[in-house]
Amino acid sequence: MLAYPPQALRLSGSHVSLEPLTLDHVADLQLAAQDGELHRHWYTFVPSPEATEAWVRSALALQDQGSALPFVVRRQPQGDVVGSTRYMNIERDRRRLEIGTTWYAQRAQRSALNTEAKLLLLTHAFEQLDVIAVEFRTHFMNFQSREAILKLGAKQDGILRNFTVSPNGTMRDTVVFSIIQSEWPTVKAHLQYRLSRTR
């Protein structure tokens, strides 16, 4: 059974380290989001500078409820904070969770950082938390995110039409992807190979 609630932890690799989100990270996250003005992308939920503290407090409240485990993403070896990600929608009885609310500063996008971050999160989820499935969800119009999820080795499950209302008031169609436990060894080998090509 999924260890519940998952405990805050640090996951580290050569390109990235993931550390538990705290209020001390607000200023660093504000700076990261300004690189590429990520909060201006209408199809994402990246916080604006003035909303970052409330966004962090909301994430920590979900952690206290046991439904999420948020991280800040620190680029290595530089050591700068370049974004955030989290385990979310954690379902103990179904042994499922989602990796989401992921965003990176422009300088960290399309790099080995995302591949290694996902490898670290997926390894912990499947091999320590013993989940049977990991989901990824994104806005239908976020084509860059959809492409990145497919490159991980996830498969598209479907599209949830009019799933929620976006911050700008438009209806969001949410694309759902997943990796299941039986696929994990192949996906892990694929991600390790991709990383080996970037060293």
Describe this structure in words.
The chain has 199 residues and is α+β, with helices and mostly antiparallel strands. It has a single domain (11-196), classed as Aminopeptidase, CATH 3.40.630.30. The protein has helices at 26-34, 52-65, 112-127, 143-152, 184-196; strands at 11-12, 16-20, 68-75, 81-91, 96-104, 133-139, 155-165, 171-180. It has an eight-stranded mixed beta sheet with strand order 1-2-3-4-5-6-8-7, with helices on both faces. The chain is globular, with a radius of gyration of 16 Å.
Quick rundown:
With 199 residues, this protein is α+β, with helices and mostly antiparallel strands. The protein is built from five helices and eight strands, in the order E-E-H-H-E-E-E-H-E-H-E-E-H.
